[in-house]
Amino acid sequence: MAYGLLKGKRGVISGALNEQSIAWKVAAMAHAEGASIVLTNAPVAMRMGEINQLAAQTGSAIIPADATKDEDLEKLFQGAKEQLGGPVDFLLHSIGMSPNVRKGKAYTDLNYEWYKQTLDISAMSFHRMIQAAVKTDALAHGGSIVGLSYIAAQRVFPGYGDMADAKALLESIGRSWGYHLGIQKKVRVNTVSQSPSKTTAGSGIKGFTGLFDFAEQMSPLGNAPTEDCAAYVISLFSDLTRYVTMQNLYHDGGFSSTGATPMVVEKIGGEE
Ligand SMILES: NC(=O)c1ccc[n+]([C@@H]2O[C@H](COP(=O)([O-])OP(=O)(O)OC[C@H]3O[C@@H](n4cnc5c(N)ncnc54)[C@H](O)[C@@H]3O)[C@@H](O)[C@H]2O)c1
Predict the structure, then answer these.
(1) Going by CA atoms, what residue is nearest to atom 20 of ligand 1?
(2) If 143 and its partner were Cys, which of 173, 180, 187, 189 is the partner (CB 3.0–4.6 Å)?
(3) Which residues lie with the beta carbon below 6 Å from any ligand 1 atom?
(4) What's the confidence (pLDDT) of residue 271?
(5) How far is the CA of 265 from the centre of ligand 1 (A)?
(6) pTM metric for this prediction
(7) Per-residue model confidence as pLDDT tens digits over 122-180
């Protein structure tokens, strides 16, 4: 059911690779809630071609941009303003990739060139994206920016490797920009810390299936589906949350506040 929560709003959504992507769900729901959007992803991701289907479904333009390149990002926001007929009310950063994780390099044996890439792609890109939007005067007064995070920013999940450091940086960048943009333009910036989800990025994590099942059994509500993550992000883009900013918000079925559950304790042979 749609509520018209984003009626008349303009937005830029990054990171929709395929139907499983969290960004894909956000884009589909933003469209259903009345927004006009521009989609963006890395030029290499365009080759998969699936984003064209989402663009057709949501009546959106696609502007390719590598989130580690400032010139691409400035073109993105210039182009978005033109396509949408004005500055953007909301922006989604839904980007993550670690060469170390992808190539099976443990946290105790990192390749530092890859480590730099992890931080650049998965965290600094959040800063770059917002800075490019500010420089091109593409952010509307009272707008909302969301980045996607994971609880490995606060607690150790060994298979998550250097992405944990990237998420900690991402959350800090969100807080810092939230301060500056709040003062400048009443724009709010938050990160949403989502449950493990079966997407291309998620499934690339070592031991993902075990982690997914563990989180499922450690969460009173169960793992949060990506559709529900999209709904939460939409609420943050809407006028219903105009004074929520500089927060890392858990969307995880209660995982982050749970110490133990009978399901998990029984599995290791104990009694709850
Ligand atoms: N899947 C999970 O378990 C999970 C849990 C919590 C948070 N997240 C976060 O959600 C976000 C979206 O991931 P997802 O799970 O939807 O997976 P996904 O693989 O569908 O999305 C990741 C996106 O990042 C894009 N990307 C990679 N390098 C880029 C670059 N240089 N420039 C621009 N885009 C680039 C990819 O093309 C892809 O679209 C990520 O930040 C991820 O860390 C995922």
Answers:
(1) 21
(2) 187
(3) 14-15, 17, 21-23, 41-42, 45, 66-68, 94-97, 121, 148-150, 194, 196-197, 199-202
(4) 67
(5) 32
(6) 0.98
(7) 999 999 999 999 999 999 999 999 999 999 999 999 999 999 999 999 999 999 999 99
- Nearest-CA residue for ligand 1 atom 36 is 15
Which pLDDT value is given to residue 1?
83
The SS3 of residue 186 is coil
List, edge to edge, every strand of the sheet that includes 248-251. Answer: 61-62, 36-40, 10-14, 88-93, 139-149, 188-194, 248-251
The pick from 12, 19, 22 for probing ligand 1's pocket by mutation, whose C-beta has the most ligand atoms within 8 angstroms, reads 22
Which residues have a catalytic role annotated? 150, 160
Structure tokens at 242: 């105009």
Q: To which residue do tokens 């990739």 refer?
A: 97
How high is the pLDDT of residue 48? 81
The low-confidence residues of the chain, meaning pLDDT below 70, are: 271-272
Q: Distance between CA atoms of 10 and 139, rounded to whole angstroms?
A: 10
Ligand 1 centroid–CA 1 distance in Å is 26
CATH number for domain 10-267, candidates 2.60.300.12, 3.40.50.300, 3.30.43.10, 3.40.50.720: 3.40.50.720
Which residue is associated with the tokens 């080759």?
A: 47
